[in-house]
């Protein structure tokens, strides 16, 4: 079973538990909900109106679960839904019956007076409460809900309800996705309260998770983001010797930043959880001097005013990114960074980096997938490309990015490009070896590449790379 199928199966089971015994949700009445935006693999809708607006949703984060209601009034309007939600949020097999209810929604406690729940009304969340589930509105989280996010990640359940349209009206210059208190918790799990009104209807409860093509909308107006990122930038002067990949800009919170004349995006940004991401589809662009004004803007956009440390894995980019005015350090990934800069070929700390962004960090990542796609016939770069191969990093460490530029330039002048995977890999090994003047067949063979005897003969006159990092695995 693929990961997508696994998620879908988990979501359907969760949906059945959450909507058990419910025939309809009559949302018509005094409550004007927020339209919720969902991103990622783990978030799924529970209630969707005829316009495709999501008004109630659920998600997973770390080991925990969260249910989000688009208006705090729903906490008392739908007691059966709340009871189902608290039961599901507690987790399978959990014997922790304690439920913490924030005092501003204390009426919920009256609906949970059953032997299966031990309810305590509290002023604020604390990890000292030792509850299994915490119920709150979206306005009573405080300025730093770090403890509540940690509780969720560690396996706790959170039921949160509210709307953001009134907050947005009173804070017109603020970023609702990141500054509205409710989103500081729900956002890590891929559910966001938005400033858009949700249209309230009498909604039937379907046997399966509701879906609609109308829900495929942009989750934010990115005008302010683009104005910030492109300040002082009139064009992108890209080096001609770099072959970039086209980036698929997908999802309601992703947007293109730079495109070619024929409209193919090579640079894009996105909101993810409480953090931000910028993707450029060739790592060499990170070190291009003419792009320094953009990279300065990008680093500050990712840093979001924290003025924290920018960790840079890509040596050639360090000089250019240091012009941002922020402290840039050559380092591998660390949790105390504000922004992390790496290539798409990174193979370590992947889950940690994902959580780092979800919880508010910035990520700038560069790389291309076209070579990986050519050498991995039958595999899908959208799902299987994990950052190409670690061998690319080893080659960069030994020979630098200039070698890659020369290899890519050589490909521009080739014709009759091979069709089969093995021949493509041999061509790359041969081209790279000739470019750097060293026989790299042993290195590529150590990575499992099917290097042919004919390729070894062609390169036999070149000196061998005898101290490559994979020598121990021969």
Automatic annotation (TrEMBL):
Gene Ontology molecular-function annotations: transmembrane transporter binding
GO biological process, one term: positive regulation of protein targeting to membrane
Family matches, as Pfam families: Peptidase_M60 (PF13402)
InterPro entries found in the cross-reference section: Class_I_gatase-like, Pep_M60_3, Peptidase_M60_dom, TCAF
Transmembrane parts of this sequence: none
Domain Peptidase M60: 394-448
Source superkingdom: Eukaryota
Record-level GO cellular component terms: plasma membrane
PANTHER family cross-referenced by the UniProt entry: EXPERIMENTAL AUTOIMMUNE PROSTATITIS ANTIGEN 2-RELATED, SI:CH211-210B2.2-RELATED
Protein name: TRPM8 channel-associated factor homolog
Organism: Pundamilia nyererei
Upper lineage: Eukaryota, Metazoa, Chordata, Craniata, Vertebrata
